[in-house]
Amino acid sequence: ATPTALMAGSGRGAQLGILIRGPQVLERTSRIDTVVLDKTGTITTGVMTLADVVAAPGESGDQVLRWAASVESMSEHPIARAIARAGTERLGRLADVVGFENVAGLGVRGTVDGVDVLAGRATWASERGLAAVPEVTRAIDEAEASGATAIVVGWDGAVRGALVVADEVKPSSAAAVADLRRLGLTPVLLTGDNEGAARAVADAVGIDRVIAGVLPQDKVDTVRTLQADGSRVAMIGDGVNDAAALAASDLGLAMGTGTDVAIEASDLTLMSGDLRAAGDAIRLARATLRTIR
Ligand code: ADP
Ligand code: MG
């Protein structure tokens, strides 16, 4: 009867829009006690829009946007898409880029109109020899405190401006987190984004524990640390940068709206991209396992 019940469970999952990779997955699903959630694209829509253009004293906001948008047009990152789209809408055709480089979790750079332009995290810009500008740093701090994400843009040895982007919490995310809590699970928000943006989203959906500013390769270590502390960890994510953590967790759940890499690294796929399916999966697994015992 055991395999039959598991088969039935998988079938029921498919009806709920939950794709289950193999019958043994339900067993692991039923034993999870901690749920690590990625922010961008998992709790939020992942569709960012450009909210503000900041120019350093003596610089033009259009120039900052044009060059940053040109470099970002080479990247698929949600931040990059927002900037490239806004640049095209406001300024028309973007410039060609040579020598493009994408550093996961940090930003992008490339040569535009003969100038080496960088767009990304402020700490990375500084490491790459771009001097910070107090006015821009202050604008970034304000944007991040209000829950947005700001990236710096720089060339020729100095920061020349910043771009502020933001996306929205999905309408069902708060209910989904509340459901996970009702099931006795501890939610944890894990993101590469800044602390301010992470806190704003966590507060909006009811998550207490926030781990922010984590590089893609360090997301795995976060999962392993939780496991070493005795937690049975489910990870929910959508991005290329979540794949390793999805594979390392006791149970990986991918958003069906996410990247193929995340889906391939996962045990379960929530087809609709509605986070509430995570609670459904846990409930289904527990019910299925009760039937067997
Ligand atoms: P998340 O965990 O929220 O999906 P990422 O790890 O992809 O975030 O990115 C973390 C941070 O790295 C971003 O908040 C941004 O500061 C920077 N970053 C990543 N990709 C880019 C990009 N294409 N352009 C500018 N900044 C980027
Ligand atoms: Mg994401």
Automatic annotation (TrEMBL):
It comes from the Bacteria. It is found in: Cell membrane. Belongs to the cation transport ATPase (P-type) (TC 3.A.3) family. Type IB subfamily. This is Carbonate dehydratase. It comes from Williamsia phyllosphaerae. The chain holds residues 397 to 689 of 742 of the full protein.
